[in-house]
Amino acid sequence: MNRDWIATARTLSEALPYLQRFTGAVVVVKFGGNAMGNDEAMAEFARDMVLMRQVGVNPVVVHGGGPMINEMLGKLNIESDWVRGKRVTDKATVEVVEMVLAGMVNKRIVQAINHEGGRGIGISGKDDGLMICDADDPELGFVGRPSEMNVQVVRDLCDAGMIPVIAPIGAGREGNETYNVNGDTAAGAIAGALKADRLLLLTDVAGVKGADGEVVTQLSTQQVRDMIADGTIAGGMIPKTETALKAVEDGVRAVVIQDGRVANACLLELFTEHGAGSMIRNDDPEDG
Ligand SMILES: Nc1ncnc2c1ncn2[C@@H]1O[C@H](COP(=O)(O)OP(=O)(O)O)[C@@H](O)[C@H]1O
Ligand SMILES: CC(=O)N[C@@H](CCC(=O)OP(=O)(O)O)C(=O)O
């Protein structure tokens, strides 16, 4: 097992206050398709989740899988258009998205967690009515905006000692629609409904960079709004930071945007003094 995180914390006793601080905490982790990389990245992520569980944290995994959807759509000769970072999703596409995310990707993560000794259990936003959606925008087709969350199933699974792994697929209100939800959006909605202690958004950069190109380690919600307004935050970082703002508004104590490609990313964030990446939280210094 890679023990870099212990080396970073230097000794286990140094990590102990952090372990105690997060005992019983609910930590929602968004695991994106790019961060999954290869089998080793998957195994390492799974080990982190199992270790978190073993030290008394309740990890809840919400995953993406954009690259895997692209690969399957390519095999089927179905093309996708993107609008503001979201896949325009017609009927044929949403069927593929559900098969790939709730089938292949979800079960791959569950299997990796179980292989590392955890009790991973895979569900989608459809299970137990977890994530009921409305259409986000008519232009996007079957892209869902989570509008009603029923997170009791997630709490029950955590209470039973399991690690829920959630595919970002939502049900509609009519009983027969399927919605494709952006992975970050789904993670934010689930974390918000759980009033999670942390939402970790794993991405492919070290964190949110300021105008000077350096990662800003602590950000207030107002700073994030200003950085979006003046263009310092751009591209794919816009929906990610907007998700963070909404999650904090919904009662998540802090959101961290960090590099999912580094070894033991989640453990480094939770169990070391300096954490990792950029932390976004309410402007109230008493918070979090
Ligand atoms: N201020 C910023 N700080 C960091 N990344 C930024 C910033 N503005 C734009 N970006 C871009 O956002 C990208 C992350 O978004 P995205 O590629 O959608 O992530 P993911 O695929 O992990 O969901 C970065 O790779 C970077 O190119
Ligand atoms: C609406 C929308 O765009 N949904 C995403 C869902 C997967 C996802 O978010 O995957 P990553 O986290 O790996 O990017 C998609 O179709 O690709």
Automatic annotation (TrEMBL):
<dbReference type="InterPro" id="IPR037528">
    <property type="entry name" value="ArgB"/>
</dbReference>
<keyword id="KW-0067">ATP-binding</keyword>
<comment type="pathway">
    <text>Amino-acid biosynthesis; L-arginine biosynthesis; N(2)-acetyl-L-ornithine from L-glutamate: step 2/4.</text>
</comment>
<dbReference type="GO" id="GO:0005737">
    <property type="term" value="C:cytoplasm"/>
</dbReference>
<feature type="binding site">
    <location>
        <begin position="65"/>
        <end position="66"/>
    </location>
    <ligand>
        <name>substrate</name>
    </ligand>
</feature>
<keyword id="KW-0418">Kinase</keyword>
<keyword id="KW-0547">Nucleotide-binding</keyword>
<feature type="domain" description="Aspartate/glutamate/uridylate kinase">
    <location>
        <begin position="26"/>
        <end position="257"/>
    </location>
</feature>
<feature type="binding site">
    <location>
        <position position="87"/>
    </location>
    <ligand>
        <name>substrate</name>
    </ligand>
</feature>
<keyword id="KW-0963">Cytoplasm</keyword>
<dbReference type="InterPro" id="IPR004662">
    <property type="entry name" value="AcgluKinase_fam"/>
</dbReference>
<dbReference type="InterPro" id="IPR001048">
    <property type="entry name" value="Asp/Glu/Uridylate_kinase"/>
</dbReference>
<keyword id="KW-0028">Amino-acid biosynthesis</keyword>
<feature type="binding site">
    <location>
        <position position="180"/>
    </location>
    <ligand>
        <name>substrate</name>
    </ligand>
</feature>
<comment type="function">
    <text>Catalyzes the ATP-dependent phosphorylation of N-acetyl-L-glutamate.</text>
</comment>
<dbReference type="Pfam" id="PF00696">
    <property type="entry name" value="AA_kinase"/>
</dbReference>
<dbReference type="GO" id="GO:0005524">
    <property type="term" value="F:ATP binding"/>
</dbReference>
<dbReference type="InterPro" id="IPR041727">
    <property type="entry name" value="NAGK-C"/>
</dbReference>
<keyword id="KW-0055">Arginine biosynthesis</keyword>
<dbReference type="GO" id="GO:0042450">
    <property type="term" value="P:L-arginine biosynthetic process via ornithine"/>
</dbReference>
<protein>
    <recommendedName>
        <fullName>Acetylglutamate kinase</fullName>
        <ecNumber>2.7.2.8</ecNumber>
    </recommendedName>
</protein>
<feature type="site" description="Transition state stabilizer">
    <location>
        <position position="240"/>
    </location>
</feature>
<dbReference type="InterPro" id="IPR036393">
    <property type="entry name" value="AceGlu_kinase-like_sf"/>
</dbReference>
<comment type="similarity">
    <text>Belongs to the acetylglutamate kinase family. ArgB subfamily.</text>
</comment>
<dbReference type="GO" id="GO:0003991">
    <property type="term" value="F:acetylglutamate kinase activity"/>
</dbReference>
<feature type="site" description="Transition state stabilizer">
    <location>
        <position position="30"/>
    </location>
</feature>
<keyword id="KW-0808">Transferase</keyword>
